[in-house]
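Morning run. Coffee first, then this:
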Amino acid sequence: MLTLEPGSAAVLARAAGAAALVSARASVSWPGRSPSGPAQGALHGHAAADRAGAGYRPQFDIAGSAIAEPTLPAAASAPVVEVYMLGPFRVFANDRAIDEWPHGKGKAIFKYLAAHRARPVPREVLMDVFWPDAGPGAARNNLNVAIHGLRKALARADADHAFVLFAQGCYSLDPALRLWIDAEAFIAHLQRGRAAEQRGDTAAAMAEYRIAQAIHHRPLLVEDRYESWLVPHRQRLRGGCVELLNRLAEHAFDQGDFETCVAFAHKLLEVDNCDEQAHRLLMRCYSRMGHVHLALRQYHFCVDTLARELDLIPGPPTVALSRQLRQRQAI
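And here it is:
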């Protein structure tokens, strides 16, 4: 049976209707907004491709929990909500930017619920994450105030819909929302790429990896770099990004497309400038392109970076490759 915390009676009817839903996996009708900047534009284009093609169907939320299929279709009147978490945090509801967030923790709570949307989040978990030093009474009061402010901010986009539900002591985003989250889309395309590789369809795998790479243009919630609850999620997404960039770079190298390989290898170094494998890949690419001086320069970049960042020297494979380059051996 659904129960609501004090002050939330206005969402009772909406919550009761949505309680039977498990996930908001409905096709998102993308608004006609022109996102700003090349990264947002590419992301918007890939989302449209999702809608027209296989569809954006995430199997896991950002926290890695499985998202069940919906038991009921989302209502056509349910708000379209787009959440950008890779890079600066942005939310659009019915093509309206949510810019006026409440003071306090309301915005942070929305981020947490979006990252863990596969299952309701117990009230006590939110209290512990956001008010760890407060007593139970004070933490609960702070949470109620934050949720009230959050609902008020979201209501500016659609006053007739409850975006945040409370049921059996837990909070969640309304599963009836037609929701698109960029980090979930990244995970979905990464998974589809892996599946394509397993069935031997390399071309399909590389296409999925390219889309995923375009989506993951910045780390998760860059403005919240010191939030401890984000650390495992950020690491999981970063690991997936490194995996697909390695596969894209290796495939380009094997195809003799050295310029593309160089571009992906540089992106790997943007993620981790101490990645010796990426440095070696660049050295090989430059050598194959006839630019031995650039290959040796990359080796010196590697030496300097490892010394500065880790107080280390390159490993034997990297040193051996530099010797081959100096001796003008074919690599």
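The beta strands are 80-84, 90-93, 96-97, 121-122, 164-167, 170-173, 178-181. Good start to the day.
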